[in-house]
Write a structure and sequence with these properties.
Blueprint: H1 9-17, H2 20-43, H3 53-61, H4 65-76, H5 80-91, H6 95-113
Helix pairs in contact: 4-5, 5-6
Organism: Hyphomonas adhaerens MHS-3
Protein name: Large ribosomal subunit protein bL12 C-terminal domain-containing protein
GO molecular function: structural constituent of ribosome
């Protein structure tokens, strides 16, 4: 069966895209994208560098006495999650470090109360 109108739209598109200069440009764009995507993944990973113990101590030292009283009140009311949130907001520490700091504060307060 012979065609009356020449190439179909898809055939014309494939002829155009399969030209060497177009293939080279697409390949170069792909390689460049892969190279920069790998760098972005390393530079902007989901997990930031964890703070050092010295940085954690400095953040905890900046918490005001009134904020500690508010945190202690939440601990007394057995609202540990609320206490952790208050500490995170006051220090900018992550969840894990804030949780450890609150648990350490609970241990110290329990020793003082006994």
């Amino acid at each position: 069966m012979a065609r009356k109108h020449g190439k179909t739209g898809m055939e014309a598109y494939l002829d155009k895209i399969l030209q060497p200069e177009v293939l080279f440009t697409l390949f170069a764009a792909y390689i460049l994208g892969r190279m920069t995507a790998g760098r972005r993944a390393r530079d902007n990973g989901l997990s930031p560098t964890p703070p050092t113990p010295k940085e954690i101590k400095a953040a905890l030292d900046r918490v005001t006495m009134s904020k500690w009283l508010e945190i202690d009140a939440e601990l007394d009311a057995r609202k540990k999650i609320r206490a952790i949130k208050l500490l995170r907001n006051a220090t900018g520490l992550g969840l894990k470090d804030s949780k450890h700091a609150i648990e350490e504060r609970e241990r110290k307060r329990d020793l003082r109360l006994h």
